[in-house]
Amino acid sequence: MTSTQYIGMDIHQESISIAVRNAAGKIVLECVIETKANAILDFIHGLRGDLQITFEEGTWATWLYDLLKPHVTKLVVCDPRKHSRQGNKNDRIDARELSDRLYLNKLSSVDHGGAGVRTLRELARSYLTIRKDLARVMSRVKAIYRSWGIPCAGKQVYAPRHRAEWLAQITEVGVLRRAEFYYPQLDALRSLRHEVRRERLAESKKHPATKLLCQIPAIGPIRAALLIALIQTPQRFRSKRPLWKYIGFGIEMHSSADYRKVQGELPRSRKQVSVRGLNRDCNHDLKNLLKSAATIAAVKPGPFQEF
Predict the structure, then answer these.
(1) What is the largest CA-CA distance in the chain?
(2) pLDDT tier at 63 (50, 70, 90 boundaries)?
């Protein structure tokens, strides 16, 4: 009879703390190994039985997932935000806690499938990161002018042909040099954004879902590429409800004292359940994408505009 072993790994840059439980839930092995591929595989190959492994989502998660997936029976990358603990904390305790939660099947997993869209996903991440950096630099440019009482509404302050006029309004030498340093950074980020956008659109054309998504009103090639990269595959969601929650459109309902004693029985109370708005634990990039699409759809006559 093949035994099952439950392995919890606490990952760090130089070391991995490991705790192994047997089928009865008892700790049978604890050790620390280097965070190197050969050391990890040597440890895994030294174990017997059905191996189930868990570790927390983080910088090393994708690399470690690809490394271990072919060698184990079950692999769970868990959400660290949902497994915080009270009391003492160190690497050994964390590894034990992970292996215990894996044994009890009390882990909230983070999806690491969808290898077919990994290139598109990485390009989308690059695009979103560059877009956020670009927004920060644009805010810094305007902050310089505003700090010296120079009105700078609109986008003219960013245009290359008007920069000399704007810079001439700054009389302080140090502030002038700071503004001059921001403009090359702005130009470089704009150029990078266009380059990444081109590559992302070219990559998205390889996926049949792009044409289907583009049939949705206000969803063009750019948003379709982001949707595929952020959702990856609808099969990762059990039903529509987890998808709504992931997007940030899940309604949170709060109630308390749901049952009342009436004539010796405890029927459910009919009082109104409190609605606390949409859930905040979501993918904010995906939520912003769909909100912007709805805003664009509202410009044209139809149900969105009437709403």
Answers:
(1) 84
(2) very high
Asked if 285 and 128 count as a contact pair (C-beta separation under 8 A), the reply is: yes
**The predicted structure's pLDDT at residue 151:** 93
Cα–chain-centroid distance for residue 89? 26
pTM here is 0.79
User: Is domain 4-104 annotated with CATH 3.30.420.40?
Assistant: yes
Torsion angle of alpha carbons 25, 26, 32, 35, nearest 10°? -10
Question: What is the average pLDDT value for the chain, to the nearest integer?
Answer: 90
| 97 token code pair | 């806690």
Q: What does the alpha-carbon distance between residue 88 and residue 12 come to, in Å, rounded to a whole number?
A: 18
Joined tokens for residue 261: 């004693």
Q: Is 161 exposed, middle or buried (0-12, 13-18, 19+ CB in 10 A)?
A: exposed
Closest CA relative to residue 256, chosen from 264, 248, 268, 239: 268
The two structure tokens encoding residue 218: 């206000």
Instruction: Report the C-alpha gap between 79 and 85 in whole angstroms.
Output: 13
Mean pLDDT of 96-105: 94
What are the b/e assignments for 204-227, b being 16+ CB within 10 Å?
A: beebebbeebeeeebbebebbbbb
CA distance 291 to 295: 6
Per-residue model confidence as pLDDT tens digits over 241-267: 989 999 999 888 887 777 888 888 888
User: Do residues 275 and 253 make contact, with C-beta atoms less than 8 angstroms apart?
Assistant: yes
1 pLDDT more than 60: no
Whole-number Å distance between alpha carbons of 244 and 247: 5
Domain ranges of the chain: 4-104, 115-204, 221-306
Amino acid 83: pLDDT:
67
Bigger pLDDT: 81 vs 161 = 161
> For position 275, what pLDDT does the model report?
78
